[in-house]
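Hi there, hope your week has been kind to you so far. Thanks so much in advance, here it is.
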Amino acid sequence: MNSAAAPLLELDGIRKSYNLGRPNEAEVLHGVSFALGTGEFAALIGPSGSGKSTLLNIIGLLEPMTAGSYRIQGEEAAGLDDAGLTLRRRSALGFVFQFHHLLPAFTALENVTLPALMREGRVTLKQRERARAVLGEVGLGQHMDKRPGELSGGMQQRVAIARAVVLQPPLVLADEPTGNLDRASSDEVFALMRRMHAELHTSFLVVTHDPRLAERCDRVIELVDGRIERDERHA
């Protein structure tokens, strides 16, 4: 990471409560603060129920925070309306989930072109060729015309990674991307994300329960009971 560069995202005192104003109101994030710089590859870890998925949803502009400040590429997220949130999400973020969420009726290539279709309403020839190239880079050049049901779990997750990086977003959010895979496939998918990070200079924030994978990230942020308990960088 270039330490002189402005942070890609900045969280300051993020709080999140559910059932506001009701007897069962519950706060799940209690003032979370950290910054992520351009080109970082960080793991977000913590026990179940610690608030990792909630925090990732806030960073992904999928749900609002209750209090605090979240700036992405210098822009305050709280000031964006629905259209602004959608535009920022499509331009700045890529997503990889534990369950790949590929469209079963679409081929691998068609799934990878979806971000362009959603962002611009159409897929240009250049964008289709870019999708073909990325599928080749993730080792699926011979499988791009297959549908998800014809691919193994590890191959489906490679398609999901290709879809996340095809438009070269500044940040990819990965929520347990290897949680549904065996160990060998997990290692392959993780190695692929590291390669995409190195080649594209895209930042990654990876939620994982796998301590082996977390220790192979450049930075580990540990969330416990809705608070940052550890934030350390690896050499």
